[in-house]
Design goal:
The chain has about 260 residues and is an alpha/beta fold. The chain has one domain: Luciferase-like domain (TIM Barrel). It has ten helices and nine strands. About 45% of the residues are buried.
């Protein structure tokens, strides 16, 4: 798994675009397709479209907030959509919970009960959440990190995992390509910087200028060089920042594909 690459989108992608994009990503050498999840669209429904178009790829959702989704409800969605649990990495997070660390620790038994056989990946940014991912979950999912910050976060996951070995570490890397790449990255980042206390605290710790966390490449050839710096991630999930058309999304996927700079 180490060194593989996934491609991620916002939930609610048009089914025709999702089908074509999954097929293109499979041809480009991506190992997995990912969707986020938000109040306007269910990420698992987008994954079901990917699954139908590219049965050879693994699937991931990152993340489903447990203040909006109960474990039994998630299980019902998986059954309805006929998503194979063995293909799925299910990212979960605390959402707007007032006590996020306690919420994710206390939710784990119910998640294991309702979602037997599903690999559970914990959204983790701070040291304590990274430690919980390392000690108790099947993977850690990073978001909005620089390569250096991701390396430090990974050390927290590994330290908590102990002799049993660290679970895999995934992470979104927002990626925009073209003349408007910097503006797209800055717009996406500005939304998250003030979304809730967890993100506000994270960006404060990060200490990076606004609009610089991720990949903004004016030329396609430059995208791979920037992505390659994320060596702390076992799976780089390229979160494509482009209009939701097959042409625009495929252009990002092609620029960021495994080995694109080789």
């Amino acid at each position: 798994m180490s060194g593989s690459r996934g491609f991620g989108v916002a939930a609610g992608l048009d089914p025709d675009v999702a089908h074509g994009l999954a097929e293109r990503c499979a041809a480009l050498g991506y190992s997995s397709m990912w969707s986020n999840d938000h109040p306007g669209a269910l990420g698992l429904e987008t994954l079901a479209e990917f699954a139908a178009a590219a049965p050879e790829l693994e699937l991931g959702v990152a993340v489903m907030a447990l203040d909006r989704h109960a474990p039994a409800e998630i299980a019902a969605h998986l059954e309805r959509l006929e998503i194979d649990p063995e293909r799925l990495w299910l990212g979960v997070g605390a959402g707007f919970s007032k006590r996020p660390l306690s919420a994710m620790r206390e939710a784990l038994p119910a998640l294991r009960d309702a979602l037997a056989g599903v690999r559970l990946v914990l959204a983790a940014m701070g040291p304590k959440m990274c430690a919980l991912a390392g000690s108790s979950y099947d993977g850690a999912f990073f978001n909005w990190m620089t390569p250096g910050f991701a390396a430090e976060a990974r050390r927290n996951v590994e330290a908590a995992a102990g002799l049993g070995g660290s679970p895999p570490v995934f992470g979104y890397v927002r990626t925009a390509v073209g003349e408007d790449a910097a503006a797209r990255l800055a717009k996406e980042e500005s939304f998250y910087r003030d979304l809730h206390d967890g993100y506000r605290n994270h960006f404060r710790r990060l200490g990076e200028p606004e609009g610089t966390v991720g990949v903004a490449a004016a030329e396609p050839a430059a995208a791979e060089q920037q992505l390659a710096a994320y060596q702390a991630l076992d799976v780089i999930v390229v979160r494509g920042l482009a209009s939701a058309s097959i042409e625009a999304m495929s252009a990002v996927a092609e620029a960021a594909a495994p080995g694109a700079g080789g």
